[in-house]
Structures are given as structure tokens and as C-alpha cells.
Amino acid sequence: MTQQDRQRIAAGLAGGLSYAEIARRLDRPTSTISREVGRNGGPGGYQPQQAHRVTAQRARRGTPAPPRAAGSPGGTAGEEIIELAVRTGLPRMTARVHVELLLSEDGRRTAAGLTRRLRVSPASVSVAVNYLVQQGYVRRERDPQRRRDVYVVDDEAWYHSVVISARQTLEAAQAAMAAAETSGPDSPVGQRLARAGAFLERVSLDEMESADRWRALLA
């Protein structure tokens, strides 16, 4: 468990969240959170920095610490990428699957391979890869000989993910402008929505144009 994980646990406790809710946000088992809090002062006395320091001291003395999830790719670099993705709102499991694919030698993994390497349930992998495919970060291939899906990250994934995001923003722009018409273009609400729609439309179109212009860099 990283120091950032422990800080998020402390924030959750301060906000009155249950162990189960904190575990869900960290993509960890509830038992992991309850053990972490219970052996480090309890709900009323949990201090993330002290907990991290004590765990490090325990490890140096040779007392086994909770193992880092197997398959966290790329060592420290991989963990930093995962933490950055989580801070932007990506679920931790989805970030772990994405980084596992990004840092694999050929950028290819089967669902079974991801499950085995990350030591998580097939259902968790399924949810993660479905999201990554929908957002263009990963593409799905079919292995006809073994009749199984293979998930692939290649250079074109960056182009597709940018375009999909821009299209989603454009849809939001169009919805805002339609709502502006419904509210009345001369009303305060209508004017606010119209301005937001115009801004989002311009940004999304510029983003798609830029992605097309620089796509050759991925070749």
C-alpha cells in the first residue's frame, strides 16, 4: 500500500466513510482497509504518515508486510503512472490493467493473462478492459485458433482515445445548445448554456483537427 493510499484512507475516515466505501474507492478488499486501520490506531487515531513509517520499519525488521499486488508493472514507474491515472478519476483496477498492457513487451494480453498477472478476478478484468476498449485506449482482437479475445495497446490507441474523448465533448456541447434553445436563448439560463455549448464545441472540433494533423507522428 502506498503512502497516497494511506492518505486517501485517512481522508475517507475523516469524511465518515465506511471501510467498504473506502475499499471501493481504492479498489482494495474491505478486509485490507480494516486491518490497515485496526493496526495503526483505529478509526479515531489513524495517521497515514505514521502508518507508512511503521510499515516500512516492520519490513526492515523482517516482518512480512502486505505484498504489493502482483503484476503491478514497471516497478516504481508503473506505480507512479497508476497513481496519476487514479488522481484523474480512472478506477484503480482499470489503471492497473492499462499500465500492464502499456508496459508489456508486445502490448498484448489475454483476459486470462491479465487475471493471472494481476491476481484479480476475471470479472474485475472484464470491467476494466471493456471501459478501456470503449474509450479507445485498447482494442480487442479475436484469436480464431484458441477462440479467445486478445487486448492490444498500439500507437494508434492514443489517436483513437483522443478522438473518442473529443466526440463525447462535442455531444455535450450539442446537448448544452439544445437545452439553451429549450430554456429560451434570451433567458439567463439559455445564455449560460449557449456560451458553454459554443465553447465546448470549438474545443472539441479543434481537438479532433489537431489529432488528425499530428496522427502521422504515431506512424
What this model shows, in words?
- The chain is mainly α and 219 residues long.
- The protein has 10 helices and 3 strands, in the order ααααααβααββαα.
- It is 65% helix and 6% strand.
- It has a 3-stranded antiparallel β-sheet.
- The longest helix has 28 residues.
Supply database-style keywords.
single chain; 219 residues; mainly alpha; three-stranded antiparallel sheet; 10 helices
Sheet bearing the most strands, described?
3 strands, antiparallel
Percent of sequence in beta strands: 5-15%
β-strand number = 3
Distance between the termini: 38 Å
| Outline type | globular
Element order: H for helix, E for strand: HHHHHHEHHEEHH
Mean pLDDT: 87
Helix content: 55-70%
Spatial order of the strands forming the largest sheet: 1-3-2
Q: Poorly predicted ranges (pLDDT <50, ≥5 residues)? A: 63-71
CA-based gyration radius: 22 Å
How many helices? The count is 10
Structural class: mainly alpha
Compact overview of the structure:
By secondary structure, this protein is mostly helical.
